[in-house]
Structure formats: structure tokens, C-alpha cells
Amino acid sequence: IEHLVQPYIADTAEVLERVLGGGASVRRRLEQSGSTATLQEFRVEQVVWGTVAFGGAVAASLVLVGGGSARSPVLLLLFCVAAAVGGVVVRDQRLTRAVREREQRMLSEFPTIADLLALSVAAGEGPVGALERVARIGSGQLAGELRRALSEARTGAGLVQALDGVAERTTLAPLARFVDGVAVAVERGTPLADVLRAQAADVREARKRN
User: Fold this and answer.
1) Is the pLDDT of residue 193 over 90?
2) Which residues of 47-57 are buried (b: 16+ CB within 10 A; e: fewer)?
């Protein structure tokens, strides 16, 4: 069934992309959510969600028709179409919610990561060594982003450029300032421990206020 249906789903996904547009926004949100899916794969998921919603609406309409409760076939058709559109929209909203939830987890992890980096730097390690240590022992979304940045740096991207990529993948100002501060410290060799402690304290206070 998958081999038979897949070409049609792929074609429908391409049509959906042309109709909806916004591919750049979707790609950015996929990166921000930590997903490895491509734009094409996401559009296929939207088609599947829309198809399932349409099938459910058709089944409900048949039940209404069989029970004699249906008043207008046109209304039932509109209901089925609206269900298909709703399935596509709901999948898009779930992606947005996934981005928001991941960023909130990163924000909650930030004070601990910043404190660990500050401790490592205060103990005499350089910014790069501190990043490697925290990325190795840390867990969670923010530590994962640091591991990704270090991995990209090893492949030739450059650590500062890789850290800038982390900042671009978040909409949270504290995280962006944190990554920018680390990037500046790596590039210019400026003191980092006090800055990290201050940023961690600011985020903790903001969470208490919230």
C-alpha cells in the first residue's frame, strides 16, 4: 500500500507547498524544534494528517446520512473539506508548539549549563575546553546544541560560526545573548565566568517572576 500511495502523496505534498508557500519559515521551525525532517517530509506529514481528518469526516458524514440526520449534502461536503484543511493546519500548529516547548526546556536548562561553564572557566579551562567538558557531561536540549556546534566546528565550520548558528536557531533573547557572549569570549579571549554567572542569575530571576 505504501509503495502504491507514496507517489501520489509526494505529488500532493508538492502541490501543497506551492499553494501554502512559506517554505523558509517551515525549515527554520523544523531546525528550531530539533527535527531532522526535511521540508518535503513535513509537507508529506501534513498531507497524511489532512487525509486522515478527511477520512474521519467522511465516516462521520456517512453515519449521519445512514441515521437520517443529514440535512444537506453540500454542508457535509464542506465539513469534509474543512476537516482536511484543519488536519493540515493542526500539523503546522504542532510544529510551532514543538518549537516553543523545546525553547522553554532550553531556557530551564540554561542556568545550570551557564554555571557549569563558569565553574570550568574559573577552574582554569579555556572557553573551548569548558564548552567541550559541559557538552560531554551535560544532557538536555541546550547541551545537545553545544555538542552540535562543537561537531560543526570540528568539520571546519569554525567554532564562532557554529555558535552563531546556535543563536540563530532560537528566538529566546537570553539564549542568544549567552551564545553571543561565549562566541566573543572564544574569539577575543575575554573573561567569561562573571558574564555567565550574571546571565544565569538574570534567567533565574525572570523564571521566578513568571
Assistant:
1) no
2) bbbbbebbeeb
Query: CA-to-CA distance for 116 and 121, rounded, in angstroms?
Result: 9
Extract the C-alpha cell encoding 79. 465539513
DSSP 8-class letter at 172: -
pTM above 0.85, yes or no: no
DSSP labels, 103-147: HHHHHHHHHHHHHHHHHHHHTT--HHHHHHHHHHH--SHHHHHHH
The overall longest dimension of the chain from CA atoms, in Å, is 79
More confident residue, 11 or 68: 11
117 near 196, Cβ under 8 Å? yes
Read off the pLDDT of each residue in 99-107 and give the average, rounded to a whole number. Answer: 89
